[in-house]
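Take a look at the protein record below and flag anything odd:
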Amino acid sequence: MNRVSIRVLPILIFLLFNVSNSEDEEVKQSLVRFMDKLAGVTAKTDQSWGWNTTSDPCIHKWKGVSCDTQLRSVKKVVLDGLNLTGVLDIGSVCKASSLLVFSIVKNNVAGLISEEMGNCKRLTHLYLSGNQLSGHLPDSLKELSNLKRFDISNNNFSGKVPDLSQISRLIMFYAQNNQLSGEIPKLDFSNLMQFNVSNNNFRGPLPDVKGRFSAESWSGNPELGGEFISKESPPSAAAPLSPRKSEDSSRRLLLIYFGYAVLGLIILLVVAFILISKKKLKEAKADFAKKGVNAYISSTYDVSKITEHKSENLASYEESKAAMSPLVVLRSPRAQGLRFEDLLRAPAELLGKGKHGSIYKVMLDNGSTTLAVKRVKDWSVTSQAFSRRMQRLHQARHPNILRSLAFYSSKQEKLLVYEYQPNGSLSKLLNGSRNGQAFDWGSRINVAATVAEALAYMHEELSEDGIAHGNLKSANILFNNNMDPCVSEYGLMISHSENPSSNSHSNSFSLDPARIRTSFKADIYGFGVILLELVTGKPVQGDELELVQWVNSVVREEWTVEVFDEGLLLEGASEERLLILLQIALKCINPNPYERPNMDQVAVMINTLKDEEDKSSSHV
């Protein structure tokens, strides 16, 4: 018993030592003093907030305070919308030297920003919008070299803004609706993503904003005007023009007007050409919809050649209706009795076109049955091998994997028939969220977990067959009537080991072990990109490498919070869980395929994260 006590004692001492090593007493007293001045009468009557000398800001979780994972130092103070009516004491809060984020948005706080602001050396986010703050901005602001977001809008600040051009990481500067004067501040506009100084008293020339912002960003400053200027070429003092210079100016103006006239004529011709092209395209689409898939296929292949060069699957176009019967229906009530001729005759709408083929929405039985038909071209694989693969995929059943209902195979092309999914793809949903459509954090983590489980099942089920997805992307994650995600086109493509230069299909379903491993690891990479799309809210547009490289560059610069979708942060999504999902994504896109986790491991990690999110939501 004594031995157990002796062993436990060092552990207890260690824990007590760590607990006592949160923010030191001086910092804690400064923070309490800060809140006493800031709160007015609001927080003094609410003991649940903490903010007293008998508790610890990290261990006891003071209101609005976030700390590091070891609970030793304050990282964030966020006190938005709490009806605080006191005075800002920036010197006291900056005693917390590890502070990264400070926000008191939408309160009624008075006071000014003192020179002690410069003591917040590590500060990255400063949000003071929507208060009654006044006075001049201190020169010490230029010492905040890590600052990325700066928002002092909707206050009563006056005077000139210090030169902040040396703060190279600044990406947001909001100072609208104040009484600031002098010239528009010197900023590094090449990095700025958000900028607004409207409704102030700025005067003088406009800065060179690198074409990134509209006039609304500086409207409401009556004495502001003049041409854009660049930092490299400051304007010289104006000198009176001589008659000779005046004459030269007139000639230049004449040439400029003539150039504008020529440019206008070119634009008119281009617009006319576009309108004519659109009209022709519209007519072609109408003709296509009227004639159906048959029109597309018959126009692609020369019927006489098909008759002349008979293959094992195509006798001739004329014989196809009676003798060929090439459509194989895979035991599906949805496609029971479906014939190849039905697809050929049915009205069709082109939904999308990629480098591997096209997909159509096909309406049968006067529109009562809607199917999706994937047409794959230039895939030199034997019909027997293709048939075996489709039959094997049909056997591997998972509710979130979209199985084919039927398929057709010839030497020239392959057709696959799927149940039409009416609610679009994950890619379109992410595009919609950027335009205001709701796609909250809970829904995103659910999509990630569901897709991960489905892929883990398929990888396990088809590991011996060597069948990976081969073309995993957000455009292939579809939503059914219940908005449940379904992975489409599984196993339809052979992965090219993420080689961007490869644009042709494999001519066989090789069971080479190295190739199989690489194919499954390529799926992991594709899923990692999907996770990046979910946490950033940025759907891949064309080349996925652009998103991957951007995320890696931001993470390298330790600006990780800038990666996350701003809409998720505004809704109150946990930054900690967002960070965990980002870390999982980064593991999946590891440049070395053999260092990536397998899909089963990824599914476990994401489901653990989802469970934590569900528990957190149930306690709200």
The first strand starts at residue 65 and ends at 67. The chain has a mean pLDDT of 77. The two ends are 44 Å apart (CA to CA).
